[in-house]
Write a structure and sequence with these properties.
about 25% strand; two-stranded antiparallel sheet; seven-stranded mixed sheet; 11 strands; alpha/beta; about 190 residues; Rossmann fold; 4 helices
C-alpha cells in the first residue's frame, strides 16, 4: 500500500470511529503503553492532537510519564516558517498558543530544546507497517526532527488500528518507529 492510499483509507477509518469506540481505544492505548519499560527520561516530545482529525490525544500518556519519571519535562512542536522544520518548545504554564496554517495549535514563543536532548518522541501517525514505517500527513516534519535526534531516541506512535503489511513507497529518509502502540498490543521494531 502506498503512503497516499494509507492516508486516505486510515483517515476515513479514524473518522468513522464513534466517541465510545475512541474512548475505549484511548483507555486501551494507555494500558498498553504502561507495559513499556522505558529508561530514565528527561525530555519527552509530544504532538498536540488534532481533535477534528480524531487523533489520539497523548494527555493521559503524559500524566503517566510524569508520575513514572518525576522531573521529566515536556516539549511540544512549533513549525519554523523559514526552515519548515519542527522546533521543540519547552512546555510551561505560561505558554501562549495559536493555530498555524495547518490548523495545529502551537506555542507563539518559548524556550527551545535541542533535538539531541530529547529522550522520547511521541509521533503522530495515520498508519504504520510491520517494519515500523509510519504514515503521517506528508510534510516530513517528524522525519526531519527524528534525523536530528540522538540515535538512541525512543520513537513511539499510537494507532487505533493494526499495521498494514508494507508501505511500498517508503523512502530512505523515512525513520521507523521504535514502538507502535495499538489497543491490543505493542509492536517493537529494530
Amino acid at each position: 500500500m502506498t503512503k497516499q492510499e494509507a492516508r486516505t483509507i486510515y483517515s476515513e477509518k479514524r473518522m468513522q470511529l464513534t466517541v465510545g469506540e475512541r474512548n475505549r481505544f484511548d483507555d486501551l492505548l494507555l494500558i498498553q503503553f504502561q507495559k513499556l519499560v522505558l529508561p530514565e527520561l528527561q525530555f519527552v516530545h509530544s504532538y498536540l492532537a488534532l481533535e477534528e482529525k480524531k487523533e489520539f490525544a497523548t494527555d493521559a500518556i503524559l500524566h503517566f510519564l510524569e508520575f513514572q519519571h518525576p522531573g521529566v519535562e515536556f516539549v511540544i512542536p512549533r513549525v519554523n516558517a523559514k526552515t519548515l522544520q519542527l522546533e521543540n518548545i519547552l512546555h510551561t504554564e505560561d505558554l501562549v498558543f495559536e493555530k498555524n496554517k495547518w490548523g495545529i495549535m502551537e506555542p507563539v514563543d518559548g524556550a527551545l530544546v535541542e533535538p539531541q536532548q530529547i529522550d522520547l518522541v511521541l509521533a503522530p501517525l495515520l498508519a504504520f507497517d510491520e517494519t515500523g514505517n509510519r504514515v503521517g500527513y506528508g510534510k516530513g516534519f517528524y522525519d526531519k526532527l527524528l534525523s536530528q535526534c540522538r540515535k538512541d531516541v525512543i520513537k513511539v506512535g499510537f494507532s487505533y488500528f493494526e499495521p498494514i503489511n508494507k508501505i511500498t513507497d517508503s523512502a530512505q529518509f523515512d525513520i521507523p518507529l521504535s514502538y507502535c502502540v495499538t489497543p491490543h498490543r505493542i509492536y517493537e521494531f529494530g
